Predict the structure.
Amino acid sequence: MLTLSPAPAPTNKLTNGDFEGTGGWTIKTTAPGALTYSFDNTAEFHGGLRSASVAYSAGSAAYQAWYNQPVTLEAGKKYNFSGWTKASTANPGCSVSYYIGTATGSQNLKTLAIITSANLRPSWSASSGFYVAASTDAYTFNVRMTCSGAAARTYYMDDLVLIAEA
Ligand SMILES: [Ca+2]
């Protein structure tokens, strides 16, 4: 008798996208020195018991925060992104963008989702997007914040998923 095994379920291309484990993420921007990153923040979480957080301790009127990880994508495949974002206060001053970048991350190939400051709240909000890989190659998945306003704020991200469409 012929048995058909089910196709393997596509898995999250992101290592530690739920921030419940270890590894995966590299901090890219530490300036202006008042930024504190955590990839196992237990104070806030959407799923599990932990999230990522970027805390800003006040001072500079304009700054950026950025972390990423390498991903290898296959030509012609569509990758769906979903993720959750929260801030310590409404309209906190930073916009949070999730994007696919070149292998170094320095070039934004496609913004998957952007949550403007006006849309950030002290509650979790979902965002989604997609990317169709032009070639089988090394890329980066990036989380980048562009900020204005000098007040102390904390931003949270959780359950980041990048998964090939079946
Ligand atoms: Ca989590």
The two ends are 27 Å apart (CA to CA). The chain is about 0% helix and 50% strand. The chain has a mean pLDDT of 94.
